[in-house]
Amino acid sequence: MTTWSRPSQAVGLFVRGRTARTAAPVALVVGTILSAVNQGDVLLAGAGPGTWVRVAVNYLVPFCVASLGFLSARRVPADGATERDPVPNRSGDDPGRRGCGQDPGGNLYPPAPRRKDSPVPHRPHTVAFDVVETLISLEPLHDRFVDVGLPGPAWQRWFDRMLRDGMALTLAGDYAPFPEVAASALRVIGGGRLSDDDVAHVLDGFATLPAQPDAEQAMQVLTEAGISVTCLTNGARESTEAFLGRSGLDRFVDQVISVAEVRMWKPPRAVYDHALARIGRPAADVALVAVHAFDCHGAHAAGLTTGWAARLERHYAEIFTRADVIGDDLVDVARALAALPAPA
User: Fold this and answer.
1) Three-state DSSP class for 310?
2) 200-255 pLDDT, tens per residue?
3) Which of 13, 94, 110, 114 has the fewest CB neighbours in a 10 Å radius?
4) 3-class state of residue 77 by DSSP
5) Beta 286-290 vs 325-327: how paired, if at all?
């Protein structure tokens, strides 16, 4: 069902004809009846300009009423709970930081326990950023989902499914590039009802997505500390470079590495080993920064230092090896990485 939560989305439904397709038949029937009852004799006798104005009003009023009824029935809360909302705060801590992993002593982000065979991390030579959701904001896709008749918040479930499907292909020894997996996942979320034009309309939105608000400052912190910046993405290199250029982040980034080069979706170790080869540094000199704990887990297994920003998931999943550096956002993580001791 087509839904909306913001006035601009309601206007979009109207402009694109979804409202009109429902309201027009009602206005035609009701308007014709009203005109026949109220102006029928005048019309038969030869109507003047004033009569035609009243006839137009007979059609316009039921059209407006039916349109408002259509939109009212499809309104959803602007900030309704979604499957990614944090769980209710039961501990009485700061709501802005709930679910981020306090230890019993109340310390936010307690130091990460390290495996016995893991070296103590030092300030990295290079930081490789994950891209989608870490650097790119997907929230503007909400409106495009509404445009094609899906609930706006469904973009979150779609992205989760896309990641799952990409990983599943990797586990099966197969590979499909980001655009193909994205389109396939979207058709599933749409229940097979989306047309090719609908799918294209949603995915074309990637060319307009903005950077996350903490991305630029985080990269600036690192470059001012003399740390090189790279991107490691499940997406295509070309579209990632276009995003970096559009957002102005390209001035910080030395290179873009795509999983397409090894035909695997993160997080297999081979992906991170390939990134290290492209960067030309040993694992101990490179850090992976992401908002996804699974990505940090994979990078840690390959020997990289890891940094996790809590602004998306809020709680670091216990099943994954804890990241070396954890902060509220990318800026916190960048500052913590830059503050690590210099390599011996």
Assistant:
1) coil
2) 999 999 999 999 999 999 999 999 999 999 999 999 999 999 999 999 999 999 99
3) 94
4) coil
5) unpaired
Tell me the per-residue pLDDT of 66-82, one tens digit each, with 9 for 90 and over: 666 656 655 544 443 33
pLDDT band for position 63 (cuts 50, 70, 90)? confident
Report the alpha-carbon angle 187-190-194, nearest 5: 70
> Exposure of 119 by Cβ count < 10 A (0-12 exposed, 13-18 middle, 19+ buried)?
exposed
* H or E stretch covering 81: none
Is the pTM above the cut of 0.85?
Answer: no
Indicate the helix (H) or strand (E) that contains 102. Answer: none
Four-CA torsion 320, 141, 130, 83, nearest 10 degrees: -10
| Residues ≥6 apart with Cβ < 8 Å to 270 | 262, 264
How far apart are the C-alpha atoms of 275 and 285, rounded to whole Å? Answer: 12
Tokens 């102005």, located at residue: 248
Task: Give start and end residues of each alpha helix (H) in the chain.
Answer: 7-15, 18-46, 49-73, 141-147, 154-171, 178-189, 196-203, 215-224, 237-247, 269-279, 293-301, 330-338
Going by pLDDT thresholds of 50, 70 and 90, the confidence category of residue 28 is confident
Residue 278 · residue 255 · CB < 8 Å: yes
C-alpha 344/C-alpha 341 separation (Å) is: 8
Q: Which residues pair with 289 in a beta bridge?
A: 129, 307
Single-letter amino acid, residue 109: Y
Question: What is the pLDDT at residue 1?
Answer: 37
Residues 6+ apart with CB under 8 A from 167: 265, 266, 267
Query: Which of 51-60, 106-115, 251-260, 263-272 is predicted with the least confidence, judged by mean pLDDT?
Result: 106-115
**Lookup: tokens for 12:** 């979009």
| pLDDT, mean of residues 270-287 | 96
Q: Are 267 and 163 in contact (CB under 8 A)?
A: no
Instruction: Count CA atoms within 13 Å of residue 207 on its CB side.
Output: 6
Report pLDDT for 54. Answer: 75
Copy the structure tokens of residue 262. 């090894």
Indicate if the pLDDT at residue 86 is higher than 50. Answer: no
